[in-house]
Amino acid sequence: MPRVTTHRLLSSLMNVSTATSAKCFALILPYFACGSRKVRRRYQLKASSDNVLTGSHYLDGNHAAAEGAIAAGCKFFAGYPITPSTEIAERVSRRFPLIGGIFIQMEDELASMGAILGASWGGVKSMSCTSGPGFSLMMENFGLGIMLETPCVLVNVQRGGPSTGLPTLPGQADMMQARWGSHGDYEVIALAPVSPQESFELAIHAFNLSEKYRMPILIMTDECVGHMTEKVVIPPPEEIELVERRYTDKPAGKAWPFELTDDLISPMLPVGKGYKFHITGLTHDERGYPIINAEAQEKNVRRLIDKVNKHVDEIIWIEEKDVEDADIVIMAYGISARVMQPAITKARKEGIKVGQIKMVTVWPFPEKRVRELADKVKALIMVEMNYGQVFLELDRCAAGKCRTYLAGHAGGTVHDPENIYNTIKEAAK
Amino acid sequence: MATTEIRITGFGGQGVILCGYIIGKAASIFSDQHATLTQSFGPEARGSACSAQVIVSSDPVLYPYVTAPHVMLAMSSDGYQTNKDTMAEESILVYEMDLVKPDKHGPKVKTFGIPATRIAEELGRKIVLNIVMLGFLGAVTGFVPQEALRKAVESSVPSGTEELNLKAFDKGYDYGVQLKKEKAKMTV
Lengths: 429, 188
Known about the structure:
The structure holds two protein chains of two kinds.
Chain A: H1 2-14, H2 21-34, H3 37-42, E1 55-60, H4 61-71, E2 74-79, H5 86-99, E3 102-105, H6 109-122, E4 125-130, H7 132-148, E5 152-160, E6 166-170, H8 175-180, E7 190-191, H9 196-213, E8 216-222, H10 223-226, E9 229-234, H11 294-309, H12 312-315, E10 318-321, E11 328-332, H13 335-339, H14 341-349, E12 354-359, E13 361-363, H15 367-376, E14 379-384, H16 390-398, E15 403-408, H17 417-428
Parallel strand pairs in A: 2-3, 2-4, 4-5, 5-8, 7-8, 11-12, 11-14, 14-15
Antiparallel strand pairs in A: 1-9, 5-6, 7-13, 10-12
Chain B: E1 3-11, H1 16-30, E2 34-39, E3 49-57, E4 71-74, H2 77-83, E5 91-96, E6 109-114, H3 116-122, H4 129-141, H5 146-156, H6 162-187
Parallel strand pairs in B: 1-4, 4-5, 5-6
Antiparallel strand pairs in B: 1-3, 2-3
């Protein structure tokens, strides 16, 4: 069954290899919408034993992220290969034929992002992966995903930039692009794994967040974690909790795609079940029809922002250690949160009271916690592979109440723990 | 905390990365240690000098890159020349003796050579050179148990080639055990 459907889709796609991303979107959507009931039932999502490779594996971060996505029930992947993210696409392309998923290598990143939005509206969990320049190309349709409130996952395996930069070496300098890269005003959720094990786990978490909050979720990993091979333990399927998509319980004709709800998250409308609806990137009302005025804009954009802000306490995931009695708190995400450990150990051995916060979610920024800490500690440090991006948020929330330091560099390699140690020493003065 | 940093060098196609992968897998999956593998990516890794780095430790590996390897496995002269100066003061050099002519190293560097290409050819497939080297490395260093390495070889090579690869592994391992014995006699 899956083999036949894959064929149909691929042959229809081949005729439109030059399609614009909008066309791709239009193409993918009716495909899933028209799929037979039998096929659609395959996509009712549970962590199924077909999808989950329970056991201990020796995997790199990219392969682990792919396995996480598959375990989460992802059944559609569209992408365009780019180092250092390609291993995710490779893994998915080998695994999907065995589990009834659909993999498409699109003509570019614009089309890839459009395709995963279409697939998601068609009723499946979808994802793409990219790096640096590809991330830039995906930004416009990423904004469309935000505006259409479309669940999907995008992995950016960060390399050194700007431009083509360092294709094979790590960076963490797309963090502000993740936050503001598409035009307009919106909130994002971005996660950063520190290891292949976390790449697996956060891929599942990302899909759960995307379904829960009905929005695209970013995994902002980096070349070092992506290409690093370590032990990854994949649990049995019954231990993997998945968030199912919330569909409207109203009958066709009475349901709207952007219905106002108390939690600000509108249930989605299923396709192929008699619901006829319209969605658009233009500013729209609850019904999904364009309304071009300031009032509608205020309602629409305000809700995109509030739906994240209202749930910020349950979205933010930070891991604190030794923070309670700390004079200095050092914060980091991704590989930097790992590389800083030897520096912290060394400083603590010398009696410097250093606490640490590992940010599993980078966006939304843990503003409330940082403001609290700024009142108590002498200094806050941000470790990141750039010259001050998430640091700007740290500095803003510290609001002059404590000193702030950046341990940063331009990327191409991870931090030398000695440099982080020196920053701690400086902050302890 | 026992940590061993390993660098494997050779040229693209020799199975350098697979060698590192097997060491890491043996340590982390089959012998309850932590192992992080990184590799040199990029244009220089295709066809010319290429390298894989593994850190094996009793504790989680925090800094992922190898800086001063305790063990270096050299399968090509180029790879050896490029990386020889990074070796830790007290370290072990394991090399293919027909391909690498090592310089004179300090007294704290132990060197072990093996005609792995010839041994692989005798087994009928030159391509198992890396597995011969791996068995040899296992015998002369001992930071990963023999059984763990064997299991990792068996589960990592293409299906249908397990027997040949295990034979290659054992040949290399036996050669290493023998050489170690001879060296021990000489020092007595």
